[in-house]
UniProtKB/TrEMBL annotation:
Keywords: Membrane, Transmembrane, Transmembrane helix. Pfam families: Phosphonate-bd (PF12974). Residues 330-352 are annotated as: Disordered. This is Phosphate-import protein phnD. It comes from Pannonibacter phragmitetus. The chain crosses the membrane at residues 21-43.
Amino acid sequence: MCPSWKLPRTKSPICRTDGGWLPVLAIYCLAVCCLAVLAPLAAGQALAQDMGSRFRIGVVTAGRDDARSEAEPFRDELEYRLGLPADLFLMDTLGELTDALIAGHVQYGRLSATAYAAARKACACVEPLAAPRDGDGADGFHAILMTKAGEVPSLEALAGKRLAIGPARSTAAFRVPLAGLAASGRDPRQFFSGLVPVSGPEEGLAALYDGLAEAALGWSTLLGEADTGYSSGTLLQAYDRMRLDVGRLTVVWQSPRIPFAVHVVRSDVAPELKDRLRQMLSALQDEAPGAYFAIEPDFGGGFVPVLPEDFSAVMLPLEPQWQAMLKDIADQQAAAPAPLPEDGGEGDLPPP
């Protein structure tokens, strides 16, 4: 609703209020105000006509019954900022949301970095808008390769040694580092004397200290205090849970940064609408924190803009030659029994 003002009585010929005329200046001000309010709505209506009247947002429920109500503040804010109706479409899994974006059933969604890479590889029909930062200011993480400090000082010194690797589905403990090493001329199948399968990064560290491998894979923001394992990742988990002295480990290789997540939009969405989305996301935490935390409850640092090249680390494993290599390693991994420490137990990290 346009506001109204009550002007003081005056005999000004421009703004006469002593008779039966409506104040000319007030009418002018009201007109300007109404235009300011209605112009975005008119633009939104024009965009809505171009897009089939409504903007479709895909949301992953992950089995949560209250997913719709949780995401509603974000939908409401997006609808207000864009000036056109917006609807939520609930998906059970990230795979379903990725497929819906590729097929054009929804126009906007929040994906993992690897899901974005898969969508881009499938159709080149989605564009990244923004990535969330954590409360420490990190907007992503690195896959890292770790060794015992002082024993293997560099990546080249690992030639002919054993590497503990995670499950084939793991981004940081399998796909990204193995493809990255291969792309740099170090095919893991030849460079290392053995690839030791483990169930995850912490088990990889246990294998390292149990003498089953000379190197292990994990992830880290590599931001913050190195002595306490940085702000997040495998090293911090080891420090927090086992009080591991992370100074006894050396990171000898790291991948390019991998965004924690990414908000994407279909490439066929109107350019003006994409610009509005970018502007909205960049200011969302400051201007509408309820809407921000409705869609990003785990990352409290706001959004940063991202470009396709920011996802090079997760795009690399999708290249045909590295896909074939990763499948070969995964097949060998599936056929190999899971290793146990020499004492037959479950393995422990060393005392601090």
